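Key result, reporting period 2: structure in, sequence out.
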C-alpha cells in the first residue's frame, strides 16, 4: 500500500512563518519579484471571494479589496519541506516528492518497526510530521492510503485534516475512483492538458474513462492516453524515492545597498568557503543554487547546472556571476548551495587527450546525459528501442528507455 501525505497551501504557510493566524483572513502569496503579476497560493477566506492561485493581481484585488499579500519565500519552503521529509525518512520511509506539500512512500516495509500494522505506520507518520520543534507545519496533513500513487493522492484529497486517514483497499480502488472527475488527472504534469480534451469529448469521470478501450485511447492520445487509462483503473508506475540530500551551503550577510562589485566580491568569498567545506570530500560540483533574502522580506532562488562538473573557483564564478544581475530587489544576504555533486575533482588534466577515441566520446556523452538529467529530471535523456516494428499500433513499435550514462559491462571489456 502507498501512503500519500498532503499539506494544503504549504508555500503560503511557509511564507507566513510565525504569522499563521493570518490564514483565517484573505491572504495570498504576492507575485514573484520580476515574474508575471499573478498571485500564488491563497487562504480559504480569499477563495470565498473568488480569488484563486494563478489569478491576475488586478483581478484578485478587484474581487477582494482587503486581500493581504505576503512575499513568497521559496528558500523557506525548500528548507521547511526538506525538514518534514527528513522526519518521514526518520521512521524508515523511502519518500518520493516532486513538489513541496506532497509526498508518497510505501507502507509495506514499515509495519515491522511501527507496531506491526498499517495503523502503527500512520501513527508514526503523524508524530513525525507534528515534530517537537513547535513549528506545527505538518499538523494539518491529509493522509490517504491506497494500492498506488494516484489512488492514494485521490484518497488524501478526501481525507480530513488532523483526522483518521482515508484508506482504500485493493479490491475497492476502481469503485472509489469511478465517480471522481477526470480533472484529477492534472495532478500528473504529463497529463495537464488531457482532462480538458476528455471533458470536451463528454468523458467527465474516471469511471467513464476506465471503460474506454485501450486501443482507442492509444490511437487518439498515444502514451498519455494509456497512462490516464491505467490511472483511472487503479494502476500506476512504481515510486521513485528521492536520493538522500547532502546540504552544503554558505550564506553571507551584505551591507546596506550592496550592488555591483560588492556582490561579486561576496560571491567569490562564498565560493571559496564552499570549496573549503570538509563535506565536499574532494568532489566536483555539478549543480549549484544561488539564493537571496530581500531587505523588504521574501526570498529568491535560482539553480545552475554546470556544463561540466568542476571545482575550479574561476569557472564557478564565471557561471554564477551573471545570475547576480537577475536579483529583482536589494538583498540583505546571499547564499550558494550545492544541489548535486559530481565525480572527484581532477586537479591535473590528461597529458595526451585523444579526443577522437571511442572511450573519450563515451565519457563526453555520459557527462552530457548526467548534466541533462540534473537540469530536467531523470527522464531527460532517453533512447528508442525497437520492440515490434511491424505492429499496426505505433505505440507498440518502439519504447523509450533510459540512456546509459555509465559504460556497460560489454563496453568495459
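The corresponding designed sequence is given below.
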Amino acid at each position: 500500500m502507498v501512503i500519500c501525505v498532503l499539506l494544503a497551501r504549504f508555500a503560503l504557510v511557509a511564507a507566513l512563518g510565525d504569522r499563521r493566524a493570518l490564514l483565517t483572513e484573505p491572504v495570498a502569496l504576492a507575485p514573484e519579484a520580476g515574474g508575471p503579476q499573478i498571485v500564488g497560493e491563497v487562504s480559504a477566506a480569499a477563495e470565498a471571494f473568488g480569488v484563486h492561485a494563478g489569478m491576475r493581481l488586478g483581478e484578485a484585488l478587484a474581487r477582494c479589496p482587503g486581500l493581504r499579500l505576503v512575499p513568497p519565500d521559496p528558500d523557506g519552503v525548500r528548507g521547511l519541506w526538506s525538514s518534514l521529509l527528513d522526519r518521514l525518512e526518520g521512521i524508515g520511509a523511502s519518500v518520493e516528492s516532486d513538489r513541496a506539500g506532497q509526498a508518497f512512500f510505501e507502507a509495506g516495509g514499515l509495519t515491522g518497526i511501527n507496531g506491526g500494522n498499517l495503523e502503527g505506520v500512520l501513527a508514526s507518520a503523524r508524530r513525525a510530521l507534528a515534530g517537537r520543534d513547535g513549528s506545527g507545519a505538518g499538523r494539518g496533513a491529509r493522509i490517504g492510503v491506497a494500492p498506488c500513487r494516484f489512488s492514494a493522492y485521490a484518497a488524501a484529497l478526501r481525507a480530513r485534516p488532523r483526522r483518521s486517514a482515508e484508506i482504500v483497499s485493493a479490491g475497492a480502488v476502481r469503485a472509489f475512483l469511478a465517480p471522481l472527475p477526470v480533472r484529477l488527472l492534472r495532478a500528473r504534469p504529463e497529463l495537464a492538458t488531457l482532462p480538458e480534451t476528455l471533458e470536451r469529448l463528454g468523458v467527465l469521470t474516471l469511471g467513464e474513462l476506465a471503460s474506454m478501450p485501450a486501443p482507442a485511447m492509444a490511437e487518439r492520445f498515444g502514451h498519455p492516453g494509456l497512462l490516464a487509462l491505467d490511472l483511472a483503473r487503479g494502476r500506476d508506475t512504481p515510486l521513485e524515492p528521492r536520493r538522500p540530500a547532502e546540504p552544503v551551503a554558505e550564506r553571507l550577510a551584505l551591507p546596506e545597498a550592496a550592488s555591483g562589485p560588492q556582490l561579486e566580491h561576496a560571491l567569490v568569498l562564498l565560493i571559496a568557503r564552499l570549496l573549503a567545506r570538509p563535506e565536499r570530500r574532494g568532489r566536483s560540483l555539478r549543480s549549484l543554487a544561488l539564493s537571496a533574502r530581500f531587505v523588504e522580506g521574501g526570498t529568491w532562488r535560482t539553480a545552475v547546472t554546470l556544463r561540466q562538473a568542476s571545482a575550479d573557483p574561476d569557472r564557478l564564478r564565471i557561471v554564477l556571476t551573471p545570475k547576480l544581475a537577475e536579483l529583482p530587489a536589494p538583498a540583505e544576504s546571499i547564499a550558494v548551495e550545492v544541489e548535486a555533486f559530481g565525480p572527484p575533482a581532477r586537479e591535473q588534466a590528461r597529458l595526451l587527450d585523444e579526443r577522437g577515441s571511442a572511450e573519450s566520446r563515451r565519457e563526453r556523452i555520459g557527462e552530457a546525459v548526467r548534466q541533462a538529467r540534473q537540469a530536467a529530471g531523470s527522464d531527460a535523456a532517453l533512447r528508442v528501442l525497437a520492440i515490434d516494428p511491424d505492429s499496426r499500433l505505433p505505440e507498440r513499435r518502439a519504447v523509450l528507455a533510459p540512456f546509459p550514462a555509465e559504460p556497460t559491462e560489454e563496453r568495459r571489456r
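The chain is about 35% helix and 20% strand. The two ends are 42 Å apart (CA to CA). This case is discussed further under Risks and Mitigation.
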